Every structure is written in structure tokens, then in C-alpha cells.
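Why do we bother with holo predictions? Because pocket geometry can differ from the apo form. Keep that in mind while you read this record for 2-acetamido-2-deoxy-beta-D-glucopyranose.
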Amino acid sequence: MKFFFFLFLFTITFSLPISFDWGDINGTSYLTSIRQQHLPQVCDKFSLINYLKKCGSCWAFSTTSALNDRLKIARKNQKPDIYLSPQFLLNCASDVGTCDGGWVISLLPWLQKNGIVEETCSPYEAIDKECTDLNICKQCWGTNQCVAISNPKKYYVSSYGSLSTVPDMMQEIFKNGPIICGIAVTPDLEAWTGGNAVFYDQSGVQSLDHWISLVGWGHNDTQNLDYWIIRNSWGTEWNPDFGGFFNLAKGVNNLGVENWCYYANP
Ligand SMILES: *[C@@H]1O[C@H](CO)[C@@H](O)[C@H](O)[C@H]1NC(C)=O
Ligand SMILES: *[C@@H]1O[C@H](CO)[C@@H](O)[C@H](O)[C@H]1NC(C)=O
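The structure, written out:
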């Protein structure tokens, strides 16, 4: 019995390709755009707090981006792409996350219960707001001419779970689409401009302080390293030669990327 189980795992693991990228499935991308969690921002020169504050909404962007991709995959790339609203989460899911950070493992059951509106209903503002009717979904014509939309279309998470091994992570990405993982951010990662070279942290730091989505994997022959292909949410100006994505060493729990991984199906 045990033997067959191992044989089964072995077969699954080794039937996966050496490289796989939802951004290039036989030349077609099933990925939605890179987002920018820090903008727009209330930049009031006279208020030190506003001036310094960057919205820590990575938990909302990583999760919505993975869900946006899975919707795109399920809809076979049919246009237009659907973007779920991180601002709606800042407004209404304040018990699971704010601009000061949040927990993906708490967000997924929240999304299963409450659902989420589209970006156009509640565009990104990079600031925590109240969950009023206007802040759930609105339509605006001019200054102060906004009305709340009643019963806006909502998308729900149908199933979710955690992933604890590298083969499980690969299998899940391959079969169903991008996944959501927590990582540690280092000053070197913040300043990274290496394009598609593999980022390999040598400091060993694993303290969770950022969330991203994993969209595939590969192997770099020059560096002789396996890597994850990762979408960040710091705009396309971050690591610009790779459009806001980055490749991170795979299989060595670099930056703790293999510690806190989750999948969610729309
Ligand atoms: C991509 O192309 C290969 C070879 O032509 C084919 O076997 C595979 O099914 C294709 N994949 C998709 C997702 O269309
Ligand atoms: C591998 O990394 C090098 C930099 O070390 C980079 O120039 C090259 O494009 C990468 N190759 C692939 C296939 O990503």
C-alpha cells in the first residue's frame, strides 16, 4: 500500500515539466496585470503620517491576482479580464487585513462567506475606509455625484487550502493556476533589478512580512538554479526588465517562500 502511494507521488512529481509558466502556455498568457499596492496614495506634505505611509495591502493583491488568473484560466482567456477589488477588502474585510497588513489564511474563508466585487465598483485608493454602501460599490459622474450600486455582482471563493511541500505547490499551480505565498522581504529584494536572473537570498531570513503569487517555475542553466516565477505587487517599475515579476530560488525555502502557501478557487 505504502509502496503504491510512493509510486503514485513519484509519478505525479516526475510527470511535471522542467519549466512551466502561466504567462506562456504555448505562447499565450493566462496572467492578469501586475498591480501597484502603494499607489495612489494620500501624499499630504503637511502630515508626516500620510507622507510616510505605504499601504501594506499585499495580502489583498496577492490573493485577488491569483483569483483573477484562475478566473482567466477558467474562462479560457475570454475577454475582458476580471479584476477583483483589493480596495473592497480594505473597506470591508478590516477584521482580516488593513493597510497595516493582513492574513491570507483568514481572508480565504472570509471570501468564501462574503464574496468580493470587481475593481470598477471600488477602485484602488491605497487607504483604509469604512464598509459603507458607497464604499462597497459605486457609480460616479462628477464631483460628489456618486451613488451606491445595490446588489453588485460578487465573486466567491468555492474552495481553498494550504500547500506544505514543493511537489504539492507545483502540482497545484500546474493543474489549477497560480497560488498565494508569504515571503520575507530583504533590502536586496526591494532594490532588485536583476531581470530574469534568479534572486537567491544568502542571509537565510524567513520572517513573513509580504505576500505574493507564484505563477510557474523554471531552471536557469547559467546559475544552475531552479526557480519560482513570482508576481509582485510593487508595479512594473520594480525589477523593470522583468515587468514587476521576479524569479526566486526554488526548493531551498528561500525567503521562507515554501512555508506559507495557499490555493483558492473562484
Ligand atoms: C501546448 O502544446 C503542446 C504541444 O503541441 C500540447 O501537447 C499541449 O497540450 C499544449 N498545451 C495547451 C495548454 O494547449
Ligand atoms: C539566467 O540568469 C542569467 C543571469 O544570471 C540571465 O542573463 C539569463 O537570461 C537567465 N536565463 C533564463 C533562461 O532565464
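The mean pLDDT is 92.
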